[in-house]
Specification:
By secondary structure, the protein is α/β, with parallel strands linked by helices. The chain contains 3 helices and 5 strands. Strand 2 and strand 3 form a beta hairpin. Helix 2 packs across helix 3. The longest helix has 22 residues. The chain is globular. The N and C termini lie far apart (52 Å). 29% of the residues are buried.
Length: 127
């Protein structure tokens, strides 16, 4: 079964309320989706690099998810990969192993502790 792609912002926000598993190259979010099937999404922020770097990371994540999710993904679950700094330079085989480990932890319900409160904005006060 081919996984579907998340496109709506609401789906990404819902996944953010689910289980979070951190790895050096990425963060995996997993959340049941009430029978919508196996779905995935990818997020890479501007903090990672310019458009070329972000697009390269997204292409690598798409290839990784196409390989791993059909066999090891959780049914009726949204999977979101959030790129981390250094993830674009990591070896593809290493990312593959990290994703398998992260999916195993998610299946066991062993997520990382929730994030601390909202981060402070980078800029100064707005006028």
């Amino acid at each position: 079964m081919k996984p579907a792609v998340l496109t709506r912002r609401a789906d990404f926000l819902a996944a953010n309320r689910g289980l979070r598993v951190s790895r050096p190259g990425f963060v995996l979010l997993a959340r049941p989706n009430e029978g919508a099937g196996l779905r995935f999404g990818i997020t890479v922020t501007k903090r990672i690099g310019n458009a070329v770097v972000r697009n390269r990371m997204k292409r690598r994540f798409r290839a990784l998810l196409r390989d791993v999710l059909p066999l090891h993904g959780m049914a009726d679950t949204d999977h979101v990969l959030i790129g981390r700094e250094g993830g674009v330079e990591r070896d593809f085989a290493l990312l593959h192993d990290e994703l398998l480990a992260a999916l195993g932890r998610a299946k066991d319900g062993k997520g990382d502790p929730p994030r601390k409160g909202p981060r402070k904005p980078k800029g100064g006060p707005k006028r």
